[in-house]
Each structure stands twice: as structure tokens, then as C-alpha cells.
Amino acid sequence: MTRSQSAYVTIYGYYGYRIATHAYTAGRDESAHAAMTKPFKRLRDWARERKWRQAVRGVLVLLRCYARGLVLLIQRPRVAQELQNREQKIKKLESSLAKKRRKVRRLEKQGGVRFGDLDLRRLDPISRNFGVDRGRPIDRYYIQNFLTHQADDIRGRVLEIKDAFYTRKYGGGRVDVSDVLDMVEDNRQATIVADLTRADNVPSDAFDCIILTQTLHLIYDVRSAIRTLYRILKPGGVLLATFPGISQISCREAGSDYWCWMFTQLSARRLFEEAFPAGNIKVEAHGNVLVAIAFLHGLTVKELRREELDYHDPDYEVLITLRAVKPGATP
After folding, report:
1. Domain boundaries in the chain?
2. Which helix (H) or strand (E) holds 25?
3. Residue 198's closest CA among 178, 223, 215, 217?
4. For the domain 138-325, what is the CATH superfamily, name and number?
5. Phi-psi map region of 27: left, alpha, beta (phi>0 left; psi -120 to 50 alpha)
6. CB 179 within 8 A of CB 161
7. Whose C-alpha in 39, 101, 304, 330 is 20 to 30 A from the C-alpha of 178?
8. From CA 155, how far away is CA 246, in angstroms rounded?
9. Is the pLDDT of residue 119 over 70?
10. What is the pLDDT of residues 131-185, one digit of tens each?
């Protein structure tokens, strides 16, 4: 064997021993350490004793056995960095997932629904009561906006159906007399018990303003009710009315047996033009496809953004609002 071969065997034996020692330090396994270092010690001894044949054969055997270990040792820094990067990515993903889970739990606690989690193939709505059991119903957003804009019309003697909630909220000090009409006698808030289709006991030209929200669709004889509304308004009096367009019909208070009609902007105008002059009627529709889906599912105002609620698509009339003035005096 040449001097260079001898040096190679000696060096290989030395570094092989160092590799085995490093493996022992990492694993702290004494039996494994002894098993790994023994061949390298023998190789070193052969080289010192100049037993070159055994030494070269030992080197070849060790190369076959430990080549993969040497590669892994050389690649260890890169592998360690890759593992560290993967651990960081996993931590980031876990943190993001935890935030999303907290958000979902918060929404569930508040009764909220994210549209990304809403299964549009479901056969049952989120709420069968227009969202009343979950918060502020979507149609109330449009009703209250409408009454806010027409608040100056709510003055003098005002008539409302079932209760005087909107009269008090939007009329304030402009209201002199507040009346409540109901067709049942056990309503303690009612000052007038009558059916709008044949309200002969209600005097003509009596009211400066009538608030009729979400009522007309429960009356089968709509034309008779409209004629009564026109008759009992004072000249110059204002009717503020709202009607459902796209809607479910499960009404917990009145019951679905009373729900007779859905309206469109056109049908509402045509009906009221039979009693009021066309120029004294202003009809508007509100809603869009997103609002329609949300309202049908019973979602609430807090689950939609303002710009989504205010966006108007004429093909999706969720709620109809109407302002009609009886001629004869300046409103």
C-alpha cells in the first residue's frame, strides 16, 4: 500500500470514530455507541499495525455501511433548516386556525352566521320567524329607514295598527293624538276596534297620518281596505305603508293562514291608483339577491354590511314602501 493509501485509511478511521462519537452524543445510547465505534477502532489499529489488506477491506465495508450516514450528516444543516421552516409554517397555520375558530365561536355565541359557512343546499332556514328570534330582521332595516326619511309626515292625529311603536319613535312632539286600530277587542293598546275592509265606525277625514307597516298582505279584500284608508285620511293627510315582496310567510303572530298576498312595486302602485291620484303616490322597492337570500333564511341586519343592504337591484324586491297623499290640502 502506498503512503497516500495509508494516510487515507488512518484519516477515515479517525473521522469514522468521530462520526460514531457524534451519533452517541446526539442519541446518548451507550450500547449503540459501543457498536458503532468498534469497527472504526479496529480499522485504526490495522492501519497502525500496517495490516493494509484488512484495513482496505474494512474501509470498503465501512463505506458501504456508513455512506448513507455520512450523506445524512453532511446534509443535516440543510435538513434541520427545512424542518425549522416547516415548524414555523405549522405554527402560523395553527395560529390562523385558532383565530378562525375563535371567530366562529364568537359568531355562534352571538347567533351570527358567516356566508362562507352557509350551505345553500340546506332545506331548512336558519330561522322560521324572519330572524326575530336572532336579532333585528332585515325588513325592519328598510321599514325604519323609510319612516326616518318620512318622519315629518308623522304629525297631528296619527293612526297605527296594533300598537303605537313607530308613532312614538318617529312622531315625537309632532303628534297630538295617537290612535291604535286592531280588529280584536283584547288588545289593550287599541283605541279603535275595527276591520279595515268595513270600518264604518271609523269617522271620515279623521287622521293626518296613517302608519300601515306590513299589514295589507294579511287582508284578502285589499281594495276595500285601501278605500277605507283613503276615506279616513284628512285632506292632505299622508299614508305611510310597507308591504312584503320576497318573503317567507311563517308569521308567528298572525299565523300563515292570514297571509294572502305578496306585492311588487307595480302591483302596489296599480292598486293605490284606484283610490289616490297617481301623482300623489310614491312607491319604492328595496333589496337585492343577497338580501333576498339572507331574509329568506332568517338572517339579521348585523350579518350584512350597510353597503350590501343599501344596494338596489330592481329584479329583487324584498320590501315595498309607499307614500300616498289624499288631495285637498297641502301636506
Report:
1. 3-95, 138-325
2. helix 3-27
3. 223
4. Vaccinia Virus protein VP39 (3.40.50.150)
5. alpha
6. no
7. 330
8. 31
9. no
10. 888 899 999 999 999 999 999 999 999 999 999 999 999 999 999 999 999 998 9
